[in-house]
Design brief:
Length: 567
C-alpha cells in the first residue's frame, strides 16, 4: 500500500526546518487603525482641519481669558460706579444724545448688554460680565471644544465691555479680538460639545476668513509704516522704538543698545514680514505654512521685546489657520485612541466616500456661504482704505467690529516723555521747603532705578494711557485730573491701579501735581547704570499745576463724576 505523500512528508519537512532554523511565519493580523502595516503611527493626510480647529479654539480662548481677567481686575476702577470715566455717565450721555431715536436704534449704534441691565450697581454688572467670560473661556481653553452658543456668548460679553469702555478700550486689539472672536463662532457646531464633531468639519470659508484677517493685519501694518514716518523708509525707526514704545520691558533695554546695523536689519525684516510675506497665503499649501511659521515667529519676537498687551498673542491666532492637520499633528499624542489617532480614522473613513447630505450640514453650508458674502461686502471699505494714500489704522466701519482696519506704529516718537504724579502734605504748594513725593505706577517708567516690567500678555490700561497723555496735554485727558482728585482723597479703588502710594499710613496729600520729564535708557557700563539706574530722566516742566481737592470739586460736578471723599 502506497503511503500518503503529504502526510508522511510533514515530519520530515518539520525536522528539516528545525535544522535550518526556519519556522512558519505567524498569520498576519490587520494593522490597528491609525497605524501603518509595520505598526508605527501613520501620518495624517493634508487637507483636513480637525486638529486645526482645536488649536484655534484653545488659542482664542486663551486670549479671551486674559482679556476678561484684565477686565475683572481693572474695570471697576476705570469705568465702574466711581471709576475714572464711569460708564454710567457715558451711557446716559449717549442716551440723551439719541433721545429722539428708538431703543433698537440706540442699541444698534452701540450694542452692549448694559442697556438691558440695572445701572444702580454697575460694579456688580461689570464683574458679572467679566466672570462669565472667564468661566466660558476657561472651559474652552481646557477642553478644546465649544459650540456656537459659547463662542457667541464670549463675543457678546466682550463687545458689551468694549462699547462702554471709553478711551480705555479704544485700541486696535479690542476690535481685532472681536473680529477674531466673531469668526470663531462659525468654527463650531451649533449645539454639540465635542473636540471632533464628526458631522461638522471645519469650514474652508471660515479658515479663509482667518487668513484674510491676518493678511489685512500685516499688510495694513506694513503700509501704514511706509506711508507714515520717514524713519521707516530710511530704516532708522528701530533706533528709537525700544526706548519710546508705550511700556518697555527689560529685553528692550538691551535691544535698544544693539549696533546700528542690527537696527537696520530689524527694520528691513519688518518690511519683509509685513509687506511681502502676507501674499504667501495665496501661493499654495507650502507657502501658506511658511507664512504661518514666519508670522508666529515674528509675533514671538515682538512679545519678547515689549509689553504690547495681548496684541501679539492675538495676532498669532488667525495665523494658525495656515496649518492643516498634517502640519499640526506633531502637537498631539499618537497613542491609540488619541485625538490624532481618531482624526486618522476619520480621514480613512471619508477617503473616497461621499457622505449623504444631512439637513444640518446643508443649513451650516448656507450659513458659511452667507458669512463669506458678508465678509466680502464689509471688506470693500477696508480694501479701499488699504489702497488709499490717506490710509487710517485701527478703525471699525460698523458697530459690531466685524471687519476692521489695522496698523501699528505708523509714527515713531523720537524721545520718551513721562508724566510723574506727585503729592505733598505741605499746606503751601509753593513753599520752597515743600516735599513732593512720587506716585509709582505698576508698569510705566517712573523711578529710574526700577527695572522695566515684564507682563505680556497682561495689560495695565492706565499705564498705557499715561504714555499717550505724556505727549498730549491734560486738557485732552480730563481723566488724569479725576485721578489726581482721587489721589487727594486716597481713594482705595484708584490706588489699587498704582504700585506705590507714598502716603500709605498717613493722611492724604494736600496737593497733587503733574510733572513732565524726558526719559532715556541709561548706557550699559556707564555711570548711571553703575548706580543701578535703568533710566536717566530730566525735568521738562509742569504738566499740570498743584491742585487741591476743593479746587477740583466744581470740575467733578460739571462732568457728573462722583465727588471723592477723603479718608
Amino acid at each position: 500500500m502506497r503511503p500518503d505523500g503529504p502526510t508522511m512528508a510533514a515530519p520530515e519537512e518539520s525536522l528539516r526546518r528545525r535544522k535550518t532554523g526556519y519556522s512558519d511565519p505567524e498569520p498576519e493580523s490587520p494593522p490597528a487603525p491609525g497605524r501603518d502595516p509595520a505598526g508605527s503611527p501613520a501620518h495624517l493626510h493634508a487637507g483636513t482641519f480637525w486638529l486645526t480647529r482645536i488649536v484655534l479654539l484653545k488659542a482664542l480662548a486663551f486670549v479671551y481669558f486674559v482679556a476678561f481677567l484684565v477686565a475683572f481686575h481693572q474695570n471697576k476702577q476705570l469705568i465702574g460706579d466711581r471709576g475714572l470715566l464711569p460708564c454710567r455717565v457715558f451711557l446716559k450721555n449717549f442716551q440723551q444724545y439719541f433721545q429722539d431715536k428708538t431703543s433698537w436704534e440706540v442699541f444698534s449704534y452701540m450694542p452692549t448688554i448694559l442697556w438691558l441691565m440695572d445701572w444702580s450697581d454697575v460694579n456688580s454688572t461689570l464683574d458679572l460680565l467679566a466672570l462669565l467670560g472667564l468661566g466660558i473661556s476657561s472651559f474652552v481653553l481646557i477642553t478644546g471644544c465649544a459650540n456656537v452658543l459659547l463662542m457667541a456668548a464670549l463675543w457678546g460679553l466682550y463687545m458689551s465691555l468694549v462699547n462702554v469702555g471709553h478711551v480705555w478700550y479704544s485700541f486696535g486689539w479690542e476690535s481685532q479680538l472681536l473680529e477674531t472672536g466673531f469668526l470663531g463662532i462659525f468654527l463650531c457646531p451649533l449645539w454639540t460639545l465635542s473636540r471632533l464633531p464628526q458631522h461638522t468639519p471645519t469650514s474652508r470659508i471660515v479658515l479663509w476668513g482667518f487668513r484674510w484677517l491676518i493678511f489685512r493685519i500685516m499688510l495694513g501694518a506694513g503700509l501704514i509704516k511706509i506711508r507714515g514716518d520717514r524713519c521707516w523708509r530710511d530704516l532708522t525707526c528701530m533706533d528709537f522704538h525700544y526706548e519710546t514704545q508705550p511700556v518697555p520691558n527689560p529685553v528692550a533695554y538691551y535691544l535698544h543698545h544693539s549696533p546700528w546695523w542690527f537696527h537696520r536689519f530689524e527694520t528691513l525684516s519688518n518690511h519683509f514680514i509685513e509687506l511681502l510675506v502676507p501674499f504667501f497665503l495665496f501661493l499654495g499649501r507650502r507657502a501658506c505654512i511658511i507664512h504661518g511659521v514666519l508670522q508666529i515667529l515674528f509675533q514671538a519676537i515682538l512679545i519678547i521685546s515689549g509689553n504690547l498687551s495681548f496684541l501679539n498673542w492675538l495676532t498669532m491666532v488667525p495665523s494658525l489657520a495656515c496649518f492643516d492637520d498634517a502640519a499640526l499633528g506633531f502637537l498631539f499624542s499618537s497613542r491609540p485612541g488619541s485625538l490624532k489617532d481618531r482624526v486618522l480614522q476619520m480621514q480613512s473613513e471619508i477617503q473616497g466616500a461621499r457622505p449623504k447630505p444631512r439637513f444640518g450640514s446643508v443649513v451650516r453650508r448656507a450659513a458659511n456661504v452667507s458669512l463669506g458674502v458678508l465678509l466680502a461686502w464689509l471688506s470693500v471699505p477696508v480694501v479701499l482704505n488699504l489702497l488709499s494714500s490717506r490710509q487710517v489704522m485701527n478703525t471699525h466701519f460698523n458697530s459690531l467690529h466685524i471687519v476692521n482696519t489695522y496698523g501699528a506704529f505708523g509714527r515713531i516718537t523720537k524721545e520718551r516723555t513721562e508724566v510723574i504724579l506727585q503729592g505733598t502734605a505741605s499746606p503751601n504748594a509753593s513753599a520752597p521747603d515743600a516735599v513732593w513725593e512720587d506716585y509709582e505706577f505698576k508698569c510705566k517708567p517712573g523711578d529710574p532705578s526700577r527695572r522695566p516690567c515684564l507682563i505680556s500678555p497682561y495689560h495695565y490700561r492706565l499705564d498705557w494711557l499715561m504714555w499717550f497723555a505724556a505727549f498730549q496735554t491734560y486738557e485732552h485727558n480730563d481723566w488724569i485730573l479725576h485721578l489726581a482728585g482721587k489721589l487727594l482723597a486716597s481713594d482705595t479703588e484708584a490706588l489699587s491701579l498704582l504700585a506705590h502710594n507714598p502716603f500709605t499710613g498717613r493722611p492724604p496729600p494736600r496737593w497733587v501735581r503733574g510733572e513732565h520729564y524726558r526719559y532715556k535708557f541709561s548706557r550699559p557700563g556707564g555711570r548711571h547704570a553703575a548706580e543701578g539706574k535703568w533710566w536717566v530722566r530730566k525735568r521738562i516742566g509742569a504738566y499740570f499745576p498743584p491742585l487741591s481737592l476743593e479746587e477740583l470739586r466744581p470740575y467733578f460736578r460739571d462732568r457728573g463724576w462722583p465727588l471723592p471723599q477723603p479718608l
